């Protein structure tokens, strides 16, 4: 990156900050109304208003990035998408920029993406409470060591997921989950001894919990592959500064098998093995696709 990339990135960040400060005002006001009025239909109507505000926030951010960062997009697979459908969305995860890429591609084409967030992120200034107002599920995952010390914690993760997903059943929603669970780095890849060339090992448990909690509502998987150019930084600043110029986004719509939402991932070894095999097959295809696009 050069000095101009840093200047452009700083301008975009400043614009996003101002956009956030402005947009949280109506968002917080409608959130207060939603907290005060407990009538179910009114609650759902106000939730839709909050989503419209968030979509407008993303539209402004996308416009800023398009005008200042000026990435060139090659997007495949947008045909047939609908705002009236429930989706499970996943993608390979290489950079914080991935989230902005997904928001650019899907905003106002499908229901707003809802991410599973770590509990600690609710403390992020402005955005943390905005995510809470928009019904983003905040997760506190318990480690095996914590469960061994306190057996009553067993199954709490699943219960938390179920409660979070209950709010998604009222109107179409897109549930976003990075199967890898963390951003790709070569060090993580080597530490895991990942069998994939361009991907970390996928974590199937959270996806199985989400599908089970939604009770079969999620019927379509949007399998997204983001391809950044080789030999350039994949950092957020590089993306916002225009150092990443050509970005490919490849979308495949896949039916989610009915059995995938009907088993007990935690306690049924046969179901767990079948679910992991399904995810592994998807990941092998994604890895091959990445290799083909990076070498052509």
Detailed description of the structure:
The chain has 10 helices and 8 strands. It is of the alpha/beta class and 296 residues long. The mean pLDDT is 90.
Could you name the key traits of this structure?
8 strands, globular, 49% helix, 296 residues, 6-stranded mixed sheet
Q: Provide the helix percentage.
A: 40-55%
Main β-sheet description: 6 strands, mixed
| Global outline | globular
Strand order of the largest sheet: 1-8-7-2-6-3
Entry summary:
With 296 residues, this protein is an alpha/beta fold. The chain is built from ten helices and eight strands.
Record the SSE blueprint.
Layout: H1 3-36, H2 40-69, E1 72-76, E2 87-91, H3 97-106, E3 113-115, E4 117-118, H4 127-133, E5 138-139, H5 144-149, H6 156-166, E6 174-176, H7 186-192, H8 205-213, E7 220-227, H9 236-240, E8 246-255, H10 269-295
Parallel strand pairs: 1-8, 2-6, 2-7, 3-6, 4-5
Antiparallel strand pairs: 7-8
């Amino acid at each position: 990156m050069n000095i101009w990339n840093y200047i452009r990135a700083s301008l975009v960040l400043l614009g996003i900050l101002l956009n956030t400060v402005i947009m949280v005002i109506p968002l917080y006001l409608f959130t207060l109304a939603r907290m005060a009025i407990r009538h179910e239909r009114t609650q759902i109507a106000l939730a839709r208003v909050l989503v419209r505000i968030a979509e407008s926030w993303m539209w402004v951010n996308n416009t800023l990035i398009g005008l200042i960062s000026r990435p060139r997009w090659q997007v495949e697979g947008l045909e047939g998408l609908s705002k009236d459908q429930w989706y499970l969305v996943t993608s390979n995860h290489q950079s914080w920029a991935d989230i902005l890429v997904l928001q650019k591609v899907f905003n106002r084409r499908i229901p707003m993406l809802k991410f599973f967030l770590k509990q600690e992120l609710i403390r992020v200034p402005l955005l943390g409470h905005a995510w809470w107002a928009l019904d983003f599920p905040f997760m506190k995952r318990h480690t095996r060591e914590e469960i061994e010390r306190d057996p009553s914690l067993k199954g709490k993760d699943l219960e938390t997921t179920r409660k979070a997903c209950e709010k998604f059943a009222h109107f179409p929603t897109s549930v976003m989950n990075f199967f890898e669970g963390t951003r790709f780095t070569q060090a993580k890849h080597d530490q895991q001894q990942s069998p994939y060339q361009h991907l970390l090992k996928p974590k199937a448990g959270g996806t199985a919990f989400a599908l089970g909690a939604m009770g079969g509502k999620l019927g379509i998987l949007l399998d997204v592959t983001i391809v950044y150019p080789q030999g350039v930084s994949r950092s957020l600043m590089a993306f916002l500064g225009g150092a990443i110029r050509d970005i490919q986004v490849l979308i495949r719509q896949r039916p989610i098998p009915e059995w995938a939402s009907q088993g007990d991932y935690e306690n049924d070894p046969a179901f767990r093995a079948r679910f992991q095999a399904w995810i592994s097959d998807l990941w092998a295809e994604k890895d091959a696709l990445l290799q083909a696009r990076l070498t052509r």
